[in-house]
Amino acid sequence: MTNHILNHLPYKSSFRFVDHIASLNEDGVKGEYTLKPDSFFYEDHFEDNPVTPGVIITEIMAQIGLVVLGMFLIMKEADHRFEANDSMFPLLTSTDVSFYKIVLPGQKVTVISKKEYFRFGKLKCYVEMMNSDNELVAKGMFAGIIKQIAVNK
Amino acid sequence: MTREEILNELKKVIAPYTTNKEMLAGIDDNTDLIKDLKINSANLVDIIIDAEAKYDIEIDYDSADKMVNVGNCVDVINEKLKEK
Question: How far is A109 from chain B (nearest CA, A)?
């Protein structure tokens, strides 16, 4: 099940921020990501002094905390008959994040998400990110929906 | 509860989700939650959940779908309160 979700995440290469799903159930998810030192954003943020941008921290929290859990919940609702659909996109609808520690290239972070609710297609979670010393990096409320978008190819 | 009482209570439920306080003070049945009050469509779900807690009712998918303007919201809440 977790492999199935990882394989169907819509993000590719430079914008995929999930390496491993450690635990996953209807109430929450725990997952990990290691920041790649050659990631595109380190070159300019900041020159000769790479620090992970807050917007990337937020994205990692959203991909693990909302998208992985959201896909799991939708698959459950569909009784596991969920098939990859090119026109389904997860969209972030709100975030409210506080940051406590910086994350440097090569560091591994763990994201823990607890479901507040999943109703009418909207998933809202309380999400925390910890570093490898188990120190709090960031925390906040996240919400998102899965949107069907017609794609002209 | 009368429709007017529900409407007054509903204003408090909506308040955290709109920045348009002037418009909120003067809402009527025809006020559209998204177009007039500029509420983020995903926050309609929060308004429904807050309304459920406030009135101790359950709003199902079909009823939620009808809650487009203030009048529809009052109708749905009124209907659910009668079912209790």
Answer: 29
Query: Structurally, how many domains does chain B consist of?
Result: 1
The tally of CA atoms less than 13 A away on the side-chain side of residue A79 is 0
The pLDDT value given to residue A3: 87
More confident residue, A89 or A136: A136
Q: Which residue ranges form the domains of chain A, and what is each CATH number?
A: 2-148 (3.10.129.10)
Question: What letter represents residue B58's amino acid?
Answer: E
Q: Where are the alpha helices (DSSP H) in A9-105?
A: 54-62, 69-77
Q: Give A-chain residues touching B45 at CB under 8 angstroms.
A: 119-120, 122
ipTM of the complex: 0.85
Long-range contacts of A38-41 (CB under 8 A, 24+ apart): A39/A14, A39/A105, A40/A14
Contacts of A143 in chain B (CB under 8 A): 42
Do A56 and A109 touch, CB atoms closer than 8 A?
A: no
B68 at the A interface (CB within 8 A)? no
- Using the Cβ of B49 and the Cβ atoms of chain A, whether some distance falls under 8 Å is answered with yes
Q: Is the sign of the CA dihedral A48, A51, A54, A57 positive or negative?
A: positive
Q: Is B33 on the interface with A (CB under 8 A)?
A: no
Q: What is the CATH number of the domain that holds B43?
A: 1.10.1200.10
Higher pLDDT, A12 or A18: A18
**Higher local confidence (pLDDT), A151 or A99:** A99
Beta strand pairing status for A28-34 and A20-25? antiparallel
Element (H, E) at B76: helix B70-83
